[in-house]
Amino acid sequence: MRSLSLRELSNVSLTEAEFSSTNEPGSSSLTAVAVDLDQNALLLTTESKHNTHDGEARIEVWTLRKEGELEHSVTPSLVTSFQTPTLASGNPWSAGPLKKPPYGSWCDPEVLSLHVLPDSHTLVAVTRAGDITTIPLDDDQPSAEVVGSVEGGIMGAAWSPDDTLLVLVTGEDKLLVMTSTFDVLSEGPLHPSDFGEDAPINVGWGAKHTQFHGSLGKAAATSSIPAAAVGASPDDDGHVRISWRGDGAYFTVSVLEGANEMETRPHRKVRVYSREAALQSTAEPVPGLEHALSWRPSGNLIVSTQRFGSIPGESSPKADGGSGLGPGRDGRHDIVFFERNGLRHGELTLREWNPESNAIGKQRKWGYRVREVGWSSDSNVLSVWIERDDGDVVQLWTTGNYHWYLKQEITAPSGPDGSPGRFTTVKWHPEDPLRIILTTHSQVIQRAYAWDTLASPSKPPMDSGSVAVIDGTNLLLTPFRTQNVPPPMSSHTLSLKLPDVSLPPMPRRSPTPIHAAFASRSDLFAALWEPGIVEIFDLKTRLGPGRGKVIDPATLWSGVLEGTGSRSYRQVVFDQSDGSQEAIRLIILGTDTSGDANDVVCVLDILGDESKQTVVPLPARNGRLIAGQGVLWQSPDAQVFQVDPETKDVTEVAQFPEFCFWIAQASANESQLYIGLSHSNKLHVTNGHAERTLAANVNSFTTTPGYLIYTTTAHVAHFAPLVELAKVLLAADAPLPELGTRRVERGSRIVTAVPSNMSLVLQMPRGNLETINPRPLVMEIVKQDIDSGNYGKAFTACRKHRVDLNVFVEHNRDAFIEGIPSFLEQVSDVDYINLFLTSLGQGPLPDDIVSQICDKIRVELEQKDLKKYINSILTAHVVKRPPDHEAGLAVLLRLKETEPDLVEDAVKYIIFLVDADKLFDTALGMYDFSLVLMVAQHAQKDPREYLPFLRELRALDQYYQHFRIDDHLKRYEKALTDLSLAGPERFDEALAYVEKHHLYDHALSIWRGTDKYEAVLNLYGEWLFERREFREAAFVFRQANKPERALIAHEKALDWQELFELVGQQNLPTSDIAYRVAEELTSKKRFAEAATVLLDYADNVRQAVIALVEGNHFSEARRIITLKHHPELLEEIVHPGTLECRARIAEEIGEMREQLRKQLNRIRELRVRKIEEPDAFYGVEDTDLHNVDVMTDISMAPTMFTRYTVAPSAVSKTSSKRSSRSKRKLERKVGSGRKGTVDEEEYLLKSVSKLVARFNTVQADSSALLPHLLQFTEEHRAEAASLQEELRDFAEELRGTVEEIWKKAPESEEGGAESGAPSADSWAARMEAHEKRKNVNPADNIVKPELAKQEWKLKLPDGN
């Protein structure tokens, strides 16, 4: 679906003064051209023949250098000149019977080959006389030197693509292969008799008449072309052609063979040779085969031409085999293709023959002939150089989907005297794939093309999505909004013919248009021819379904632009500004063909039958028009200008970082965006003030009213909202927005986008089309329809493109809720409403929103027609959150008597929505047995399962029946309520039911205020007592007037205050109870409370003091002794108790000291090991490897690499899912300190932290003990002093240990940077960084413990 558009045009003329100093006008001509890639220059040769020296020709070498872009003011400079013998004098063999005279003075130039050798930067010229001349281009004054001559002259020459080999065909019918230093590698005959090394082998099975011949039928089995019927075309020039394959592995030679014993007439033969000049194959005989030859660089096709039919002017065919041309229609002329093995492989028919003209010429029998064929360097474009009586033309052909398209025609400029224009050379640029170089007798023409898609820019709702493809004089039109016709077919073929206008003599046949364009505001289409002819059509495209033609074009206007004949027009666009539908503004870009003039833009305004043309000169050449609002033009230096046709002012409005051939204007947030794609695949966007590059691998793009869509070479389509792009340009540092993406087929390119259809048309590399509906485009249209209240159209689009119907609510919830009546009017089908409700129920919306919408839809449907929408109403009840099945069945109950058939169908439907068993239970819970039976029957339940149960229920009284139903449905609270209403005789059963299902709270609410309340409380208390919730049980027993049970519960809960309160109220003895409670409190280490109970309720001072001393409450014990007047207890109990406490503390300090020293020594050992053996220290076992199920049986030391390698496992992944028990076991294993590893060090650090916390507790106990030791005997004071000494020593030791352990280690000791560190991007550097993250010091993960303040430190009387 792409067309070739002219991108750059250069025309440099060589005046007579710039030729040689000959006095004969017209005696010099350009004859050969070469490309110097190193200097970005062209090298040209001109030939001059002197009448005084018939045996010589003067060859002049010129250079035409260009700096970057095409230069038009550069004057060619002479490199050197030399003399060479002419063909007639130097080559006596040329008068042989097979050699034909030239058609014109310059048809057979002396220079056969002109080529630049890049290694030596030398120009090599091969002449027909047999001379090989070299010119060193790096010399200050280059001079020509003949490095060798070939006897008999040279008939053909061609250099290999790698510039290492030169193939020559000599006048003595020899084939030579030479090196770049002109050493002969091979020499052989030009006309070998054998087929070649790839000759087909007959394996002895199968015959031709048994094989399949396709559409040719069985007649092909017997058809054969006799040797006498294979002849040469009258237009054959008789010269040898040589062409190389793109990889330089093979070359082909086309030569005119003479008559011999086997073949009775001259004919063409094509042979394929290897790089070493070994014959590989010979093409099958083709009658009418001509001289043109070119091998496609990609290597799959060899191109030549073939004539068919009879020869004009011959009255009757020859008796020995006819005309010698191919059998077929008279005038048929094909471009034929061969494979490397010599077999034919398709053809395309030229469109030059005009049977009405009956032109018969002396030189061109059919009025034209094919001079040469050639391929672009990327093998995509085939050039056909045609010599016609009325002037030369070069056609550019491309192929897609097995169809050949004629994309462009280049007509040779006429001579100064009006004579037909002739090309002298046609050559493709070896690196720029779409640049072609043409020369005439005095001009060098360079034309660069680019692929472009001629798509309609029309906007919704009138967007047709039309695309035009140029194929010669036919325009293939397809509106993708209504049809997706695969190429090469199309919806409509518009045949073009030059309008009947006053022009200089034009070719016999209408030429191919150079460009075409669609209008954006109307269904108009314009075609442009290069001389300046414009024709505008009204396409009348049908946008909707219906009968009649899809496109019915009619000519609206045709005419000629100003400067016709002196300008070359190349691009046409419509002005997209808003305005009158009747007014048409067409903008055409052209360039003067003479001189170095800049571009001009011709603005054509048409209103009715009147037209006006305004020509505005532009500041540069080879720019590009932009289809947008107003007249927009981009200069070669990437500046975007706004052109005012009225004042002819040119104002800069934007700037791109590089020239963008593909450019579009888009509107967003009342600002204009310019989007451009360069040949470097960079996509730029600018608003005139700021510029951003969106991507650097883009191969196509298009715009819609809301999105910029582009595809990349990574085979991804991106969708960028224009509004977001406008915001990004307003902030220089704003990041690019998140873009929607979609994977596309490899090599896909955008053809067009049709917003109204939410479609994007892509073309694959092989030429076929694919239409997709990207989610961003779909969502844009759906949201627009929702906002406009067009719910029906939006709903249809969502169903078609599988869009979640929750979008109706998510887009604008409040507006949709208000528009539910309108939604139900437009989406009135019951199934559609059910689909929408189901989507709501399964979507991510909040429960309250779903319920609100379902309720509103249900109410609306009930008001509209309850019977019609009964299924939708049931759906609304079912999809609510939570679902209301009972309300749905209640609706059926309302209709059961009046509409039994409707209810039966509705029951079937609701069973489809809800689980049958759940619906059966819901119906049963409504206590309506008829509804239960209906549901059971339609759910196909077994009657033996439910009928006995229903009969049993029918025999019961109402409330007990309800109880049984609710109990069956596990509605226990409701069942208990029903049972409470069944009568007092059911109370015991109710209590048992409460106890069975733990319904104590509900039972209390039922029987509160009745005489049964205390019985329920007692039951509740017993249940709490069994659960060991003694405190709660005690309060419940007290409410139930069960003091005995309350006493037991208080005693079990150790609530001794409430216990002795209740004991006092019941006038019970307290002594026994007090001893029991004190014993329990002591076992719970609640010594102070135990002492209080013994004093207050057992009156036992001694036991109370003992309890206080056990709890280290020495001050309280001394107070009680003094208060109760028992001084003997001080020496008897307190003094020994303090010494016992001091001994316990000393023992604990000793244990801690021993533990601390062992752990410190072990930590020191581990840290030495960490430095000396880091692999063993960190890599003995990684916890990540616990998930590995398959381990080797061979024990081996872990390495730096294997520590970070996850071994694959063949066991199911379920084995890696650990239970909580196994996880705890693993944590204990890791935390237990595996010996000699980092885990052991971490375990020891945690142990030291716990030791510090333990010592802090000992210090607290010591601070409570020391004051009492100082107040007692000398022995006690001595113990106090020693205790303080022990505490101080251990505290200092512990503090020093903590500081040593948690001291930050130097980098060198922790595996820091070493000499010879790897580079930042190397694998070793990444592994080292991972190592540093992995080998973390355990001291960094464990918080350093802090010792408590030494509050135990007292100043003793003796100075200690």
Structural write-up:
There is one protein chain. With 1360 residues, the chain is of the alpha+beta class. It is 31% helix and 26% strand. The protein has 35 helices and 55 strands. The strands form 14 sheets. It has a four-stranded antiparallel sheet with strand order 1-28-27-26, with no helix packed on it. It has a four-stranded antiparallel sheet with strand order 2-3-4-5. Strands 6-7-8-9 form a four-stranded antiparallel sheet, with no helix packed on it. Helix 11 (870-879) packs antiparallel against helix 12. The chain is elongated and about 155 Å long. The model is unreliable at 20-26, 68-72, 89-106, 1180-1218 and 1307-1320 (pLDDT under 50).
Topology (elements, then pairings):
Elements: E1 3-13, E2 28-36, E3 41-49, E4 56-65, E5 77-85, H1 87-90, E6 111-117, E7 122-127, E8 131-136, E9 145-149, E10 154-159, E11 165-170, E12 174-179, E13 184-189, H2 219-222, E14 241-244, E15 250-257, E16 267-274, E17 279-282, E18 294-295, E19 302-307, E20 333-338, E21 344-349, E22 368-375, E23 382-388, E24 393-400, E25 403-411, E26 425-428, E27 435-439, E28 443-452, E29 454-455, E30 466-471, E31 474-479, E32 492-495, E33 515-518, E34 524-529, E35 533-538, E36 554-560, E37 567-574, E38 583-592, E39 599-607, E40 610-617, E41 624-626, E42 631-634, E43 639-644, E44 649-655, E45 662-668, E46 671-677, E47 683-686, E48 691-695, E49 698-703, E50 707-712, E51 716-721, H3 722-730, E52 740-743, E53 749-754, E54 759-763, E55 769-772, H4 775-787, H5 791-800, H6 807-811, H7 813-818, H8 820-826, H9 830-842, H10 847-865, H11 870-879, H12 885-895, H13 900-913, H14 916-925, H15 929-938, H16 943-954, H17 958-968, H18 972-980, H19 987-997, H20 1000-1007, H21 1013-1026, H22 1030-1039, H23 1043-1053, H24 1056-1066, H25 1071-1083, ...
Antiparallel strand pairs: 1-28, 2-3, 3-4, 4-5, 6-7, 7-8, 8-9, 10-11, 11-12, 12-13, 14-15, 15-16, 16-17, 18-19, 19-20, 20-21, 22-23, 23-24, 24-25, 26-27, 27-28, 29-30, 30-31, 31-32, 33-34, 34-35, 35-36, 37-38, 38-39, 39-40, 41-42, 42-43, 43-44, 45-46, 46-47, 47-48, 49-50, 50-51, 51-52, 53-54, ...
Helix pairs in contact: 4-5, 9-11, 10-11, 11-12, 11-13, 12-13, 14-15, 17-18, 18-19, 20-21, 21-22, 22-23, 23-24, 25-26, 26-27, 27-28, 27-29, 28-29, 29-32, 29-33, 32-33
